[in-house]
Amino acid sequence: MSEALQVEATGETVGEAKWSALRELEKLQPGIDKAAVRFQVVSEGERGLLGVGYAPARVIASVEAVAASAAPASAVDGVSAEAADVQEVLERILNAIGVRARIELEEDEETLTATFVGRELGLVIGKHGQTIDAIQSNAIVWRNRSDERKPVVVDAAGYRARRQSSLDALATRSAEQAVSSGQPVELEPMTAVERKVVHVCLQEHPGVTTRSEGTEPNRFVVIDPA
Length: 226
Fold this sequence. Notes:
3 domains, 9 strands, three-stranded antiparallel sheet, alpha+beta
């Protein structure tokens, strides 16, 4: 019998627990076939009265070792090998979560953008964008097989543009608050991509400077009055 890889993970929801488990399996075996992963839901999680007594969702993920090796992608349809690799990873993720969508790739000298097109994009985006951020994190596994190390952006239904607009507004309001109060303003924890949006938005804003504090995944931006 072939050896099986198995991990246990938790999350606020079952979906988040599954993504956490997939990431752990990917650490054990880069290039894992996500479509072959099987999940056992140990607990669906629950919130106590008025949010007190929170219990996380818990899952066990397993995959046969023979399914843990994915062949590196080659350049196809006029896209680079790195882009083809990312597309392969995203297709496996979509298959794993049961979502049918088309993947459109756009690549320039600085960034590789993969956009999902379909009808079930709410499942891809997830609550507060947590699922699409997790997918984007998984998509960068191609970096392990490339010297290019080009940033990967995963988008769906214009989510990134809407989120950037929201972050720009938040950054501007918070900068004005820092200037008027003379005190630093700490923003909510964000991904590296979102923190960069805030830093770029405020780099020319008069009277403030920005910096990042904390450790992942709870790293956040602090806006200081100049």
